[in-house]
Design goal:
Elements: E1 16-19, E2 22-25, H1 46-51, H2 53-71, H3 77-105, H4 108-134, H5 142-164
Antiparallel strand pairs: 1-2
Helix pairs in contact: 2-3, 3-5, 4-5
Length: 171
């Protein structure tokens, strides 16, 4: 655990269990579940979101991060940086999981297009994160801003991929 963040272990690769209805958070075994923070701008209702296993996983990741933020009481720049880096790693891991899933499902041309777009997005994300950090140049918050930007941009891209390729995430 880093700054109050739960990082998956080898025995619990992602904190999610696969069942007949798709993925569900390990904590749901005990009947505990949380209300998703994600509000879909496309107007999908909750039932439709739950059929898209990727969206359900992303919503639960949002909830997990929100819970971790309420537990994290340290306000030093180094603790904020560690928290932002942890969030970015969580989002990056989930995005990579989705990309790998899609690579198994898409035909060769679609895979090539996805990977080309993904490489372009990575370059753009890096440029945007650097730009965000430059606003804090020279201060202790420069690296925090960079890591927060990486986390938020990766989160946004994860939701985009889940929605664009929704048909490949519906059981």
């Amino acid at each position: 655990s880093v700054s109050g963040f739960h990082l998956a272990t080898a025995s619990e690769p992602d904190g999610f269990l696969k069942n007949d209805e798709g993925f569900r958070k390990e904590s749901e075994k005990n009947g505990t579940s949380s209300t998703p923070l994600f509000s879909d701008s496309a107007g999908q209702d909750k039932e439709e979101n739950q059929r898209n296993t990727a969206l359900a996983r992303l919503q639960e990741l949002d909830n997990q991060i929100a819970r971790n933020r309420t537990k994290d009481t340290e306000i030093t720049a180094s603790s904020q940086k560690a928290a932002a880096e942890s969030e970015w790693r969580l989002w990056e891991t989930e995005l990579q999981r989705m990309i790998e899933h899609l690579k198994e499902k898409l035909d060769r041309d679609q895979q090539d297009q996805l990977m080309r777009q993904h490489r372009e997005w990575i370059r753009s994300r890096e440029e945007q994160a650097v730009e965000a950090s430059q606003k804090q140049m020279g201060s202790a918050m420069e690296e925090v801003s960079y890591s927060r930007a990486l986390a938020e941009l990766t989160r946004e891209r994860s939701y985009q991929i889940a929605q664009i390729y929704e048909e490949f995430f519906v059981p």
